[in-house]
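Checklist before submission:
- one chain only
- standard amino acids only
- sequence pasted in full

Submission:
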Amino acid sequence: MDVALGRADFGPTSRALVDWCQHTPHATVVAWHTISNLFYLLSAARSNSFARSFLGELLDFATIASGGKGVRQALTMRIRDFEDALQVAAAISSDANFIITRNVADYRGSVISVLTPTSFLRRFAAQE
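Returned file contents:
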């Protein structure tokens, strides 16, 4: 979202993270419901065609984590925000090692490790 909307305050770090993802095969998984959320938000902020183009480029390097049983699993999690619980369930279903978000505090109780984009880049981009 930061990259798509060119947000100056978070854009550079988010751009670096997206660049890393684009150049690291099989490293990026996006929750299925994130696709519809992004489409809705990007369409409202820019345009329908912009949203479709951005999502098409995202899917060139990212795979989509399925929903299914994860939705039921998310209902039982002790995570206040249901959308965040869906993110955790999607991460579990795709065997993800991390969830990358600026909103780490809302993921207390996650069984998947949660990192900020900056923390992730310091830890993994520096290894290359």
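Reviewer check: The longest strand covers residues 28-31.
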